[in-house]
Design a protein that fits this description.
The protein has 13 helices and 20 strands. By secondary structure, the protein is α/β, with parallel strands linked by helices. The longest helix has 23 residues. It is globular, with a radius of gyration of 22 Å.
C-alpha cells in the first residue's frame, strides 16, 4: 500500500518522538484563542471597568507581551494564520467565511496540528472553527469533510461558523450534533433559535430543530469549557495539544446568567468576565491533574476589539476596548491587530515578566516545531518565526524585525518594520459604517465617538489633502496621531518597496536548515 507523503512524515515523526521522549516528558500545550478581545479588555492590560483575575494571574505567573499582533485584523484569516503559519493574503483570504463556504485550508498543507502529531501528541480544537467545511461547500446534512480532522486534529467540537451567523448548532468531528435524517437542514427557512441583538441571518437556513435545540447561546461558553476540561482529563497520560477557540467575546453578547451585570461595561464586559472564568476552569483542571508544571499555556486573541453596538455601549460606559490605540477590528490601525498575548509555563517562563518582542499568531507553527524538536522544511509555515526564545528567555535583539498585517481590504495591506508601520492606502481598511447602526462600523467615522486624534481626519472624515498612504513612528507615537508620510518620503518608499517584495516572495521566515 502506498503511503501518502503527509502520512509518512507523521509516522516517521512519531517514531523519532518515541525515541527522544524516553528521557524527558514532553510539555503539553494549551492555546486559548479568544475572539475579538481587544488590547484594553483585560485588567492586566489596563482595563478598569472589567476585572479579569484568572487571566491576570496567568500574566503574573508568566509573561505578558506588549507588542503582539494577529497577522490579520479579521477572524477567518487570523485562524488561517494561526493554523498554517502562512499569511492568509497569499491565498487571497481577507474576509470572514460563512454558511456555504468550503474548507479554505488545503488538507495537504502542513498545519500546527500536523507538527504536533509528528511528535506523538494528541491534538484537539474545541470552539469556533470559521474556516469552512467540505471541498466546495458544507454538507450540513451529511459528513462535514474535509474539516479539522483532515488538518491534523484528532478531535473537534464546537461552533462551525461564528456565534453571530448560521447554522446555530454544534459540530463534533464530521457531523452536526443532534441531527436526525427525518429533521434535516433546509435552506431558506427560519432557524428555530433564540433571537439576540447582533445575531444575524436567522432566515438563511432552518430545519434541524433537534440540532438547533441543543445550541443555547447563553450556555455556549460553559459547553466549550466543559468539553475542554473533559478532553484534558481524558488525555492527561499523553502529551496533548489543545486549541480552545472561544466565541467570547464576539457578538451577540450572551454571557451565562451568573455573569450578567458583573462588570461596569455592560454586556460586553460581562462576556469578558465569562471568558476569564473559562480560563480559570482550564487552569484549575491542569493544576488538579498535576499537569500545570509541564504545560505551556498561550493566551491571545484573533484580532482587536470590534466597535459594534455592544462595543460602543461599553465605550460610553468608560471602557476602552483597545486601550488608547487607534482603530478597531477589521482595520489596519493598531487597535485592529495589536492584541493581548500571555505565555505561562512554570519553571520555563520567568514569572511576572513583560516583553516588548514583536510577535504574531502566525508564529505558532515554527514555535511549536522548535518546542517538540520537529524540523520544518521551507514550504511549511513559510511566514512563521520561532519565538520560543521570546517566551522563555530574554533575547537582546528582536527575533522579528518585520511583520505583514492584513485588514479587511486588500488595498490597506500593512507592513511593520522596527519602529515604523506603513499602510499602503488611506483610512483603516476596515468597516466604515455609521455609528449606532446594526453591524458595520469603524474607520474615520468612529473618531466622532472615540475622540481619537489623527492628522488625516477631521470631523469623522478623511481630509481632502490627506496623503495617499500612511507612515507612523510607533516608538514616538503609538496612538498614531500623526501621519509622517510626507515628512519621511524616503522611509515611506523603502517600506512600500519592502511590502511589495514580501508580497511576491514565497516566504518571509528565515530559511530552514
Amino acid at each position: 500500500m502506498k503511503i501518502p507523503p503527509k502520512s509518512l512524515i507523521l509516522l516517521l515523526g512519531s517514531f523519532f518522538f518515541v525515541l527522544n521522549s524516553a528521557t524527558a516528558a514532553p510539555p503539553n500545550v494549551v492555546v486559548i484563542f479568544a475572539d475579538d478581545l481587544g488590547y484594553g479588555d483585560l485588567s492586566c492590560y489596563g482595563a478598569t471597568k472589567i476585572n479579569t483575575p484568572h487571566i491576570d494571574q496567568l500574566a503574573s505567573e508568566g509573561r505578558r507581551f506588549t507588542d503582539a499582533h494577529s497577522a490579520s485584523a479579521v477572524c477567518t484569516p487570523s485562524r488561517y494564520n494561526l493554523i498554517t503559519g502562512e499569511y492568509a493574503f497569499r491565498g487571497n483570504h481577507w474576509t470572514p467565511v460563512f454558511l456555504k463556504v468550503g474548507l479554505i485550508i488545503d488538507p495537504n498543507q502542513t498545519t500546527v496540528a500536523d507538527v504536533m502529531k509528528r511528535a506523538g501528541y494528541k491534538t484537539s480544537i474545541i470552539g469556533k472553527w470559521h474556516l469552512g467545511f467540505g471541498e466546495d461547500t458544507p454538507n450540513w446534512n451529511g459528513d462535514l469533510k474535509p474539516g479539522p480532522l483532515e488538518l491534523g486534529f484528532d478531535y473537534y467540537f464546537g461552533v462551525p461558523v461564528v456565534n453571530s451567523h448560521p447554522p446555530f448548532v454544534y459540530v463534533e468531528n464530521h457531523r452536526v450534533v443532534g441531527l436526525v435524517p427525518e429533521d434535516p437542514f433546509v435552506y431558506g427557512q427560519t432557524a428555530n433559535t433564540e433571537v439576540f441583538p447582533e445575531k444575524r441571518k436567522l432566515d438563511d437556513i432552518g430545519g434541524a430543530d433537534a440540532a438547533h435545540a441543543l445550541y443555547k447561546d447563553r450556555e455556549v461558553g460553559t459547553k466549550l469549557t466543559e468539553k475542554s476540561v473533559k478532553w484534558i482529563r481524558e488525555h492527561k497520560e499523553d502529551p496533548f495539544f489543545l486549541i480552545l477557540s472561544t466565541t467570547n467575546i464576539h457578538h451577540p453578547f450572551t454571557p451565562a446568567p451568573r455573569f450578567q451585570g458583573t462588570s461596569e461595561a455592560g454586556r460586553y464586559g460581562d462576556f469578558v468576565h465569562e471568558l476569564d472564568w473559562m480560563v480559570g476552569e482550564v487552569m484549575d483542571t491542569l493544576k488538579e491533574e498535576g499537569l500545570d508544571e509541564n504545560t505551556l499555556v498561550l493566551f491571545t486573541s484573533d484580532n482587536g476589539g470590534m466597535f459594534n453596538v455592544g462595543g460602543q455601549d461599553a465605550w460610553k460606559a468608560g471602557h476602552r476596548l483597545n486601550g488608547d490605540l487607534l482603530g478597531f477590528k477589521f482595520g489596519a490601525w493598531e487597535g485592529g491587530h495589536r492584541v493581548p498575548f500571555i505565555a505561562y509555563w512554570p519553571g520555563k517562563i520567568p514569572a511576572g515578566t513583560v516583553s516588548d518582542q514583536l510577535i504574531s499568531n502566525v508564529d505558532l507553527i515554527a514555535t511549536m516545531a522548535a518546542l517538540v524538536d520537529q524540523p520544518l522544511n521551507n514550504q511549511e509555515g513559510p511566514d512563521s518565526f520561532n519565538i520560543l526564545p521570546a517566551l522563555t528567555d530574554f533575547p537582546e535583539k528582536q527575533i522579528r524585525n518585520h511583520l505583514i498585517l492584513s485588514p479587511n481590504k486588500k488595498t490597506n495591506l500593512t507592513i511593520r518594520k522596527d519602529k515604523w508601520v506603513y499602510i499602503d492606502a488611506q483610512g483603516s481598511g476596515g468597516f466604515r459604517g455609521r455609528l449606532e447602526t446594526d453591524y458595520e462600523r469603524g474607520g474615520p467615522g468612529a473618531l466622532l465617538l472615540t475622540q481619537h486624534v489623527n492628522s488625516d481626519i477631521r470631523n469623522g472624515k478623511l481630509k481632502s489633502n490627506a496623503p495617499p498612504a500612511q507612515l507612523y513612528d510607533l516608538e514616538a507615537d503609538l496612538t498614531q496621531t500623526r501621519n509622517l508620510y510626507h515628512q519621511h518620503p524616503e522611509i515611506a518608499r523603502e517600506m512600500k518597496a519592502l511590502l511589495e517584495r514580501y508580497k511576491k516572495a514565497p516566504r518571509t521566515a528565515p530559511e530552514r536548515n
